[in-house]
Design goal:
Number of domains: 2
Radius of gyration: 26 Å
Order of helices and strands: HEEEHHHHHEEEEHHEEEEHHHHHH
Strand content: 5-15%
Structural class: alpha+beta
CATH superfamily of the largest domain: DD-peptidase/beta-lactamase superfamily
CATH topology of the largest domain: Beta-lactamase
Number of strands: 11
Largest sheet: 6 strands, antiparallel
Number of helices: 14
CATH architecture of the largest domain: 3-Layer(aba) Sandwich
């Protein structure tokens, strides 16, 4: 009798808890936006086979209202879709995960023999041996198609032997997506549409190749001096690794399918294989990361970062909850990932923490002041160039050498960053998106130094002629 009564009480409480989630989520997201200035975000929350909440907040970079049906970039969350496509082919016997990639994709060749041993599974769990330290995928000229993404690997080398080390590298998933094209005989976008998006009812989802294919709703922002500035995504290729565009409504369907073992898309055994990591990394499976919440709840998740937008998806297999977040601000600000932490806290009965403001605002203000000081010093040094030259003759011009340091730093900042970031690659313009006020200051210092040097040399030349 006691157990029956307790069960009845629990059944009456669960709907009430679920009903309170949307209001709590709306309040939290709006408080977060007010505190940080986040322009736009979408949220989807599901539980087992039910949609608990889908919503859009704020506006896009083009000024349109964000709704639950506004297409936004999910960035590297796309890897879960690519892994599913490969697993579907594997379940049909068209691909074997532990066979070499070149068996199914002969065009996949690299500049050393070890690449012939790379297996399909090693692409998906990011242990192929490809890495930014050996192949600078972001700063090199960007391909336009998946075929081009594979072709540019012909001169590339591996960082490690296949299967011996984990290295998060987007090219792994670009090769995997090209493999899907080669084996299925269809463009990758068409394959996803026919075998993933349409079966799940994801009517507003697709995948694109480059930054130029992003619609206005999927473009994002940087925060500069506390204000969100709409900017185009830097030049880049992302199909297979980060090209999926989706909406909160569509991601809700995706989360429900994932929490019900993808019925009709993949067998339970294949789903389990996708979610099982293997050596040498026990935290990354096939397009999914294995983790825990702050309270220790096991989760499956994957984040996504573009330079102007971020996204995050998370599954709680134990409770059946699924959460997806898409924000239109860049990776350096981590808005989608911070929001995900707060939404998980709500789901687990806690209180989400709302930021007190933008953590980088003080840094921006500091560099803004340095920019003004640098401009002032540059104007002063240029105005006094003739007097400086009058006090120095001949070899004393070597005193101009220190002014060349900022110019050299500005030119070599990308390789310097690569060293400091332990091999992680970024182009010059991408660094400007990561550190906007610092890069503006660096360019200002370089320009001021060059101006002062030119003015002093000109002054010295004129005095010598006289």
């Amino acid at each position: 009798m006691f157990r029956t009564a307790l069960a009845a009480i629990c059944l009456t409480l669960v709907p009430n808890i679920s009903a309170s989630v949307p209001a709590s989520v709306d309040a939290y997201v709006e408080q977060y936006r007010a505190a940080t200035g986040l322009p736009g975000v979408e949220v989807a929350i599901t539980k087992e086979g039910r949609v608990i909440h889908t919503a859009g907040y704020g506006q896009t970079a083009t000024g349109e209202p964000v709704t639950a049906d506004t297409p936004m970039a999910v960035a590297s969350v796309s890897k879960s879709f690519t892994a599913l496509a490969v697993m579907q082919l594997a379940e049909k016997g068209k691909v074997a995960l532990d066979q070499p990639v070149s068996r199914y994709l002969p065009e996949f060749t690299m500049a050393e023999p070890r690449a012939a041993k790379i297996t399909v599974r090693q692409l998906l769990n990011q242990t192929s041996g490809m890495a930014d330290s050996a192949f600078q995928e972001k700063s090199l000229p960007q391909p336009q198609t998946l075929q081009g993404a594979v072709a540019r690997l012909r001169t590339a080398k591996l960082a490690t032997d296949p299967g011996t080390a984990f290295s998060y590298h987007n090219t792994n998933y670009q090769v995997a997506a090209r493999l899907v094209e080669a084996v299925s005989g269809r463009p990758f976008a068409a394959y996803l549409d026919a075998h993933v998006f349409q079966p799940l009812g994801m009517r507003h989802s697709t995948t694109v190749n480059t930054d130029r294919d992003l619609p206005g709703s999927a473009r994002g922002h940087l925060y500069v001096l506390g204000h969100a500035v709409a900017l185009p995504e830097p030049t880049g290729f992302g199909n297979g690794s980060g090209g999926v565009l989706s909406t909160a409504s569509d991601m809700a369907r995706w989360l429900i399918a994932q929490n019900t073992s993808l019925p009709g898309l993949l067998s339970p055994q294949a789903v389990q294989e996708m979610r099982t990591p293997s050596k040498p990394n026990d935290e990354y499976a096939l397009g999914w990361q294995i983790g825990k919440t702050e309270r220790g709840t096991p989760v499956l998740e994957h984040g996504g970062d573009l330079f102007t937008s971020t996204a995050h998806q998370l599954l709680m297999p134990g409770s059946g909850y699924g959460i997806a977040v898409m924000a239109n601000t860049g990776m350096v600000f981590s808005d989608a990932h911070i929001l995900m932490t707060g939404l998980v806290a709500i789901i687990e009965g806690g209180t989400p923490q709302v930021p007190s403001g933008q953590p980088l605002l003080l840094t921006d203000v500091l560099f803004a002041l340095l920019i003004l000081v640098t401009i002032g010093l540059g104007v002063r040094g240029t105005a006094r160039a003739r007097q400086w030259a009058a006090r120095r003759t001949g070899w004393q011009l070597w005193r101009l050498a220190p002014y060349l340091v900022p110019i050299g730093l500005c030119v070599t900042i990308a390789p310097i960053h690569r060293i400091l970031a332990r091999g992680r690659d970024a182009s010059w313009i991408q660094l400007a998106y990561l550190y906007p006020t610092f890069m503006v200051w660096l360019v200002t210092v370089a320009a001021a130094s060059l101006t002062v040097v030119a003015a002093r040399l000109w002054g010295a030349a004129r005095l010598r002629r006289q």
